[in-house]
């Protein structure tokens, strides 16, 4: 009887261990399984390694997979775009270094980090310059505006090929921010980017520069009480579980700047160069339109889950523009006065 009890206990323990192992395996299920290619890329003559930090459920990032599939077909299976989202190749600053060396061939780089590559790329982060979907489309379609932007990093061996996005920047907060008086009580997390720090200093708002990976715990513990980001990202990454308010400041577009190592590109045959650039342009344009729709959908989903959306008054937005004068002066000098003024004038700022 005693032996039977011991055997039963051992059997139960084994079953429990098997259950735990199965649960662990389920937890480790590949989050990118749905995006695996339906073809075998092992015979490709050329491979383009493309990085992105975000999850491809964000349409601006998912463009990487759509580029992969379209290039594969149009290149007659000669060129494989090996798209690596979710920071598989490292954080953005690390990947930028790899891009410069050629260990990575391309990246969909967030606009806040891209200003570290070239000052001209910072134009899209200056408040209320390229801050709406319509302005972004106008900026991208005007060669006099986009070509200097695209050529700005060539001296460092990097091409700026195109742009996708992840929505319009505002404030996700744990308490309602309906005006600037409310905003001055909030400690905002901002990205590790030169333009952003300048903006918040000029606005006179409290801020903490913090890596994205530290944000969830910081929100939970109250280290920060606000987050400078877009409704798409805040809803998809569940930041709205804690920060139940979103103020639509609409001061900038969150963008993925498609950067490419020029040395790698120059080694591609001319016909594959043409295919790659054409597909990137086509899919990026589609992604920008999907981005508009996704922002509407994510805002609606967040509202349905109890997130309250607020809008700053025109007077408060004007205060932000007026107080941003030091940012305009500094970045006008960094970017170049002629180009800076042209962008603002053409886009109607």
Secondary structure blueprint with pairings:
Elements: H1 2-27, E1 46-51, H2 59-74, E2 79-84, H3 92-101, E3 106-110, H4 111-114, H5 133-141, H6 143-151, E4 158-168, E5 170-173, H7 180-183, E6 188-190, H8 194-203, E7 207-209, H9 215-221, E8 226-229, H10 231-236, E9 245-248, E10 253-261, H11 262-266, H12 270-304, E11 308-311, H13 314-323, H14 325-335, H15 337-346
Parallel strand pairs: 1-2, 1-3, 6-7, 6-8, 9-11
Antiparallel strand pairs: 3-10, 4-10, 5-8, 5-9
Characterization of the model:
The protein is an alpha/beta fold and 349 residues long. The protein folds into two domains: 33-166 and 254-290, 3-Layer(aba) Sandwich (D-Maltodextrin-Binding Protein, domain 2); 170-252 and 302-339, Bacterial extracellular solute-binding protein, family 7 (D-Maltodextrin-Binding Protein, domain 2, 3-Layer(aba) Sandwich). Helix content is 49%, strand content 17%. The protein is built from 15 helices and eleven strands. It has helices at 2-27, 59-74, 92-101, 111-114, 133-141, 143-151, 180-183, 194-203, 215-221, 231-236, 262-266, 270-304, 314-323, 325-335, 337-346; strands spanning 46-51, 79-84, 106-110, 158-168, 170-173, 188-190, 207-209, 226-229, 245-248, 253-261, 308-311. A six-stranded mixed beta sheet has the order 7-6-8-5-9-11, sandwiched between helices. Helix 8 (194-203) links the parallel strand 6 (188-190) and strand 7. Helix 2 (59-74) runs antiparallel to helix 12 (270-304), helix 8 runs antiparallel to helix 14 and helix 14 packs across helix 15 (337-346). The protein is globular and about 60 Å long. The relative contact order is 0.15. Residues 7-27 have low confidence and may be disordered.
